[in-house]
Every structure is written in C-alpha cells, then in structure tokens.
Design brief:
The chain is α+β, with helices and mostly antiparallel strands and 109 residues long. It has a domain of 70 residues: Histidine kinase-like ATPase, C-terminal domain (Heat Shock Protein 90, 2-Layer Sandwich), CATH 3.30.565. A hairpin with a 2-residue loop joins strand 1 and strand 2. The chain has a 4-stranded antiparallel sheet with strand order 1-2-4-3.
C-alpha cells in the first residue's frame, strides 16, 4: 500500500561512474526481494522481477543495481562529455558588379 509518501532521487558523479539513489523513506526491500536482485534466482517468480530486469539491463551497460536499506542504487559508467563545437566563422559575401551585354535588336537598313 502506498501512502502518498515522499520519493527522493539523488545523483552524483564518482570519478568515471554515476550513482543514482532512489529512496522512498519506507522500511526497505524485504530480504527475499533484495536477494533476488543480487542472487542467482534473479528474475524467477514474481517478487522482485522488475528489479531483476533492471539489474540485467544495467549489467549489459556496465552498471549495477543494489538494494541498500530503504534505497535502490544504480551505478553506471559516466558518458564522456560532448565536445563543445565552435561556432562556424562568420562569412560575408562579397558581390562584384557584373556587366551584362546589352540586348541589341537588329536595325533595319
């Protein structure tokens, strides 16, 4: 039962990794569910299946998911920062006058 409590999400960089902690102020995960996240039974049965799936996805991306007390913690490798691209140099078009030949019409002789 959800009593409309508060959910806290904290993120921080740890060197070449990023840690995201989600806490709801509740009592934490029951031991059987927390064990599913980190044990060989991950994904079996219905308890903790979502966490087991998330743990597998994180593992495929070099991360991990752990349960610590009333929090679920996600750790992932940090992405390299995007390079800052310099703005293209301003260009000005220089227009040269062009002399076009006059249209001539034949004159009657």
């Amino acid at each position: 039962e959800h009593g409309g409590g508060r959910i806290e999400v904290r993120a921080r960089a740890l060197g070449d990794r990023v840690r995201v902690e989600v806490a709801d102020g509740g009592p934490g995960l029951p031991a059987p569910v927390a064990d599913v996240v980190r044990g060989p039974r991950a994904g079996r049965g219905t308890r903790g299946r979502g966490l087991a799936i998330a743990s597998g996805i994180l593992a495929r991306h070099g991360g991990r998911l752990t349960a610590e007390g009333g929090s679920v913690v996600l750790e992932l490798p940090a992405a390299a920062p995007e390079p800052v691209l310099a703005a293209p140099a301003a260009r000005a078009a220089v227009l040269e006058p062009v002399v076009l030949p006059r249209a001539t019409t034949p004159t009657a002789a």
